[in-house]
Design brief:
Radius of gyration: 13 Å
Number of strands: 11
Largest sheet: 7 strands, mixed
Strand content: over 45%
Shape: globular
Distance between the termini: 37 Å
Mean pLDDT: 95
Length: 116
């Protein structure tokens, strides 16, 4: 499975961005997916996760009410709609998928910079 993120960029505080994660390869084996982020000098953290059918989602408290994770299995793509962005959301955002056998795959990341 290969994962490619896109949609990052520079945005002012209060603005919005939509990240995409396109999966290719053995996509039939993909189960849960998630978005992680890593800010400079900090550990990578889980931002949001979604089950294979998209019926269950989870968010870190700091983004609840502002970010929405979704996926379109027909397009093998996962999204992260980010609204009301804050300076502390600045980070490299990574896409992660977990296969049915438990193998995890990561994308290379996309940079989100929020200016205050």
């Amino acid at each position: 499975v290969q994962l490619v993120e896109s949609g990052g960029g520079l945005v002012q505080a209060g603005g919005s961005l939509r990240l995409s994660c396109a999966a290719s390869g053995s996509t039939f084996s993909i189960n849960a997916m998630g978005w992680y982020r890593q800010a400079p000098g900090k550990q990578r953290e889980l931002v949001a996760a979604i089950t294979s059918g998209g019926g269950i989602t989870n968010y870190v408290d700091s983004v609840k009410g502002r970010f929405t994770i979704s996926r379109d299995n027909a397009k093998n793509t996962m999204y992260l709609q980010m609204n009301s962005l804050k300076a502390e959301d600045t980070a490299v955002y990574y896409c992660r998928s977990v296969g049915e056998d438990g193998t995890a795959y990561w994308g290379k990341g996309t940079l989100v910079t929020v200016s205050s």
